[in-house]
Design a protein that fits this description.
Blueprint: H1 5-28, H2 49-52, H3 57-60, H4 73-78, H5 83-94, H6 113-119, E1 138-142, E2 145-149, E3 167-168, H7 174-177, H8 185-198, E4 221-222, E5 231-232, H9 238-242, H10 249-261, H11 279-285, E6 289-290
Parallel strand pairs: 3-4, 5-6
Antiparallel strand pairs: 1-2
Length: 292
């Protein structure tokens, strides 16, 4: 049977449609990605232990007792501290500042809370009065605040102070602070944390700056002779100065501007031209500023 011209044309159209359909199916089929040239194909995709856990210097470092006032940069590096933290510690000491108690180590601006908690039990301050080595105690944070527990398990709750009894607010640890009527573990830790940020209390009235403490807490505490930690106003960085509770952003910026454009600050009177400061600001800052 001879095909007519119309039949041949229909067959050609159908064949072309089938060809296009096959090409489309081939293009759209799912394919595994081909390895790049020179790239090895890995058959076993199960992650190895080394790929599932990131090991940092801090995690691998074994803490050991050290004095932050005398340790060198190599010692801090062995403790797992980052170079920027080590640099700030050395700058802190070069400004004629020192750590009077282990909690003062938290004043280093770039030191993380994790590293501070990890190293705190191993900090030894030469000449510090202590009844036991620090590394025999367990220190930890609860709710972001510092607390301390002795090695004795299930120690009884400390008995409260009796009328007429007092304790040194700058020397007492959290266990001793819990002896104050109306102060439990949470507020004892808040006192220690705020004391560390201040550099030490110079007046019992400063306890009113911590919200939630008993109104009569002043009757249970005294201020000892331990010197407060001072701020080297001409040496510390913006962030280090801003950590102090008595300095806000505008005040620190004024200090940095004065240092940059006028030179070192010789007294708080040099800052009286800046509107960020008031007379009351100068009064409460006076015990905490060093001009070396």
């Amino acid at each position: 049977m001879r095909l007519t011209h119309k039949d041949r044309k229909a067959i050609i159209i159908i064949a072309g449609a089938l060809l296009l359909l096959n090409v489309g199916v081939w293009i759209c089929r799912p394919r595994s990605p081909l390895p790049l040239k020179g790239e090895n194909v890995r058959q076993d995709t199960t992650p190895t232990p080394s790929s599932t856990r990131e090991k940092t210097g801090t995690e691998l470092a074994e803490p050991f007792p050290f004095d932050p006032n005398t340790a060198d940069s190599a010692t801090f590096a062995k403790l797992g501290l980052k170079p920027k933290v080590i640099q700030n510690i050395l700058h802190y000491r070069e400004a004629n500042l020192r750590f009077y108690k282990p909690q003062d180590f938290a004043r280093i601006y770039t030191l993380s809370d994790k590293d501070f908690r990890r190293l705190l039990p191993y900090i030894y301050i030469k000449g510090q009065q202590t009844t036991k080595p620090l590394h025999q105690s367990t220190y930890h944070y609860e709710g972001g605040a510092l607390s301390e527990e002795g090695v004795q398990k299930n120690a009884p709750f400390p008995s409260k102070l009796h009328p007429g009894q007092t304790l040194d607010i700058n020397a007492a640890d959290t266990t001793e602070l819990r002896k104050i009527p109306g102060v439990g573990q949470y507020y004892a830790a808040k006192i220690v944390k705020y004391r560390s940020r201040l550099g030490g209390f110079t007046s019992t009235a400063q306890l009113r700056e911590i919200k939630g403490l008993p109104d009569d807490i002043g009757r249970w505490v005294t201020i000892g002779k331990e010197p407060v930690s001072k701020l080297a106003v001409n040496q510390l960085t913006f962030g280090q100065l801003l950590r102090h509770p008595y300095l806000n952003f505008e005040q620190v910026r004024a200090i940095m501007d004065h240092r940059k454009h006028t030179g070192p600050i010789h007294s708080l009177g040099d800052l009286r031209t800046y509107p960020a400061f008031s007379d009351s600001d100068f009064r409460r800052l006076q015990p905490y500023i060093a001009f070396e």
